[in-house]
Amino acid sequence: MQPLKLGTHTAPLPLVQGGMGIGVSLSKLASSVANEGGIGVLSAAGLGMLYKGSPHYEENARDGLRQEIRKTRALSSGVLGVNIMVAMTNFADLVEVAIEEEIDVIFAGAGLPLDLPKHLPKNHKTKLVPIVSSARAARIILKKWLQNYDYLPDGFVLEGPLAGGHLGFKKEQIADPSFTLETLLAEVLTVLRPFEEERKQAIPVIVAGGIYTGEDIFRFLQRGAAAVQMATRFVTTHECDADDAFKASYIQANADDIVIIDSPVGLPGRAIDNAYLEDVRQGLKHPFTCPYDCIITCKKEAAPYCITLALLQARKGNFKHGFAFAGANAYRATEVISVKTLIETLKDEYAVAAQSSDPS
Question: Cis omega before residue 337 (within 30°)?
Fold first, then answer.
């Protein structure tokens, strides 16, 4: 496997651990992945609920992100990133905290981060990587960033329809063969090529969604991806920051338990089915007041539940009041292992795939 280069940062492995909120990927998981040569990624989602030193959600979120970045830095000298959702009402605040703390990479998705470069001082060490689900979205970002900021993205994460959590697809597109990750990758690479040639600057593409084995990594690198992003696979590790019951929900799940839901934020999402989601389907509401106003697109007046609270409860292992987001392959997990063991397994699987494809 070749290293992943994002601007001036180089990760020895072409592997990014996907950011998982709320509180599923924090300092413990991110530092462990970075120490093994990948890029460890914190999730900024919901930190205002996990850190409660102030009566103000936004202040807690800023303080929480700052503390998590510093805790992660104390545990690792590897390449570290933070995932910040564009749809968050405090997106700009969190971006500025991440830049102040000199995080290596900001991954920005759940919306188009059209003004992200405006927050970055010239020649700053932080690199900017948008998360997209289509070639069209990549083209829009490329044109806007060049036109307004003379800045090319330092890379893209291309997230396909097999990912966990909120998805950038319509429901009918999720199972449509026209929207496979392989197809999307070819389209994005075609869009990027003229920009790379004009600026003589590589724009690495990191593919995500359904990547589960070393053979998967090999297959997508052969198709032109520079790296892969994996999230679901890292949930069932000792270092994952979620409760043991959260990890057990993955191990206990069957293929039929992985379902597509309608999220209150206006997007389809992939989750592990449970009694809480069955209540939602039956029209039973989980009444709440919204003290956070954390997601711009949330239809809180009509929402049957608060997704932020539901995900936070699941992270704590309280599935009576929540549910777990998960990728399409979550049911394949059989045990909780260390990050080190997982990455060694991926390397071994990659080597077997590479060897079997070698005609000599």
Answer: no
Q: Is the pTM for the entire model greater than 0.85?
A: yes
Give the amino acid at 250: Y
Contacts for 68 with CB less than 8 Å, ≥ 6 apart: 26, 27, 42, 47
Assign domain 4-241+335-355 to its CATH architecture: Alpha-Beta Barrel (3.20)
* Residues 90 and 58: beta-carbon distance below 8 Å: yes
> How, if at all, do strands 15-17 and 9-11 pair?
unpaired
Tell me the per-residue pLDDT of 53-72, one tens digit each, with 9 for 90 and over. 877 878 888 999 999 999 99
Nearest one of 291, 305, 303, 322 to 89, comparing CA atoms: 291
> Do the beta carbons of residue 111 and residue 45 sit within 8 Å?
no
193-249, pLDDT tens digit by residue? 999 999 999 999 999 999 999 999 999 999 999 999 999 999 999 999 999 999 999
Question: Where are the domain boundaries for CATH 3.20.20.70 in the chain?
Answer: 4-241+335-355
Tell me the C-alpha distance between 316 and 325, whole Å. Answer: 13
At a CB cut-off of 8 Å and minimum separation 6, what does 136 contact? none
What are the structure tokens assigned to 150, written together? 């003379």
What distance in Å separates the CA atoms of residue 23 and residue 10, rounded to the nearest whole number?
26
**Residue located via tokens 């703390």:** 101
- E-strand ranges in 110-256 read 127-132, 156-159, 165-166, 205-208, 227-230
Q: Decide: 210 and 284 in contact? Cβ < 8 Å.
A: no
> Alpha-carbon distance 310 to 313, whole Å?
5
